[in-house]
């Protein structure tokens, strides 16, 4: 599989300025040295808790925010150093779907205006009628009737708006799409429909997708591979099945054990997480997860764990090879439900 | 998902603005409607009234000096030179209202452009532009205006420009704050991701979302501009006689306050009516257009 887009030692630091002269006193390390390859045609899930930098990483890949340092290689050519103008041809290849369907559509524009807007700048040769046709077609592709093209965003439900947001991304026929928590703001029943839409368009259009979410169930449903992020760094990358059945990083283990089980009475071993996540202003020395890790040893204070290959296609940033971690899903068939005595 | 059927789409009619919830809300605002009616009435009277009067504003009838209102053909009386006050009031109203409106259009334009650019680009652009706004605001505007008026040739055009230059800052501040809010919303980010140019995002994506506050500020600016024009003319730096304006009519009246009070009362009432009406309309629009108050 060929690499479509790649982050190389990507960093996004936000300066914290204080005092009258605005001297920089510290930096929030939202993304801190991320290396990530996304293969053509795959769906990569990016999970992590709030503030782990997953959305920032997505925005960096889109060049919505220019990274502090590092490179973003799109088919091998670096985007980070490019000017606004030089990025223009790439804008058509990469699109984004936003989290909040209420803020991502302009309330004063009809669906037609919102959808045809990208075409104005990327296919100026099209006539107004051709643009309108393309918009109607894309609207059908995301499961809304053509006739809704003249309506305003406030006439739609959250799920429908999210479909329109997806249509706006699709209309320029991109190769790569970042979906930034696209279903987090939706009801569970609507979430399933929108997720299925993503699977569908990915199949039919051969789209490469970076799916940013905090919901492990969502990732399990849609992703081919999963990257787990914590405090601006990637802890583990693995094929979805491998990550759920054989996690190699204590953080992943804890994350998986915290997810609720759909079976009544079924309760895996809860691995309690100690304390709050440390401030990204002053991350712990050594391994960033060591302060909350139940397997931490004194060596972790000094270690700078790099992502290492632990199994085919399975990378983990933990120095301890000796520990055995509890998977979320065991390969054994599930045991019959225990009768609960009150 | 199937809540909205595949019914034929309805194109919003261009008259939608008159039936929308905001319009209804505005119509229910009694004072605002009163203000609107008064302004329309005042404007029509000032621009068409002169055709119904037997005298023009410069005709001097020395035998009829100081006639009180309702004598013979002088409905509102005459001034110390025997000129018909009604005729002068209407012609002064044409000038005062035109100066007020034009100054509003100019200052809203300046304020909107500066606020839009400052709010959209942020950073140093914003700091620079908003400090200029602060600098303008820190001048006592009456003195600034008087100084400018004393150095420049006082003509209606010049007075309009002077008022516009000293009253765009409010609009700039309001627009800047609104735009900053809109610029951080995802649809602006989406437009940038697409590669839309800055001018397009500012004019097509953001401006339509901030028209409400601009309209309110503009209405209140008209009231202020009329008042400012009256100030300058009253102090003798504005519209010069024999051209009448509500301000210089008041100026002429001050020596005769006791003997001929109608000389001051008539233009005074006109100014008050115009200013309060615009303020009422502004209040009504604020209530109707404020996003938080609808739904």
UniProtKB/TrEMBL annotation, chain A:
Q: From what superkingdom does this record's organism come? A: Bacteria
Q: Which GO terms describe its cellular component?
A: plasma membrane
Molecular function GO terms recorded: ATP binding; ATP hydrolysis activity
Q: What is the membrane topology listed in the Swiss-Prot or TrEMBL record? A: Peripheral membrane protein
Gene Ontology BP terms: peptide transport; transmembrane transport
InterPro entries (UniProt xref): AAA+_ATPase, ABC_transp_ATP-bind, ABC_transporter-like_ATP-bd, ABC_transporter-like_CS, Oligopep_ABC_C, P-loop_NTPase
Which cell locations does it reside in? Cell inner membrane
- The segment(s) forming the ABC transporter domain are 16-256
Instruction: Please provide the record's keywords in A-Z order.
Output: ATP-binding, Nucleotide-binding, Transport
Q: Which family does it belong to?
A: Belongs to the ABC transporter superfamily.
Official protein name in the record: Peptide ABC transporter, ATP-binding protein
Automatic annotation (TrEMBL), chain B:
Q: Which UniProt keywords apply?
A: Cell membrane, Membrane, Peptide transport, Protein transport, Transmembrane, Transmembrane helix, Transport
List the membrane topology term(s).
Multi-pass membrane protein
Instruction: State any GO CC term.
Output: plasma membrane
Give an example GO biological process. protein transport
Question: Which SUPFAM superfamilies does its entry note?
Answer: MetI-like
Q: Where is the ABC transmembrane type-1 domain?
A: 93-282
Which residues lie in coiled coils? none
Which spans are transmembrane here?
31-53, 99-121, 133-152, 158-175, 214-239, 259-282
Q: Where in the cell is it found?
A: Cell membrane
Query: Which InterPro entries does the annotation name?
Result: BP-dependent_transpt_permease, MetI-like, MetI-like_sf, OppC_N
Return the similarity comment.
Answer: Belongs to the binding-protein-dependent transport system permease family.
Q: What is this protein called?
A: ABC transporter, membrane spanning protein (Oligopeptide)
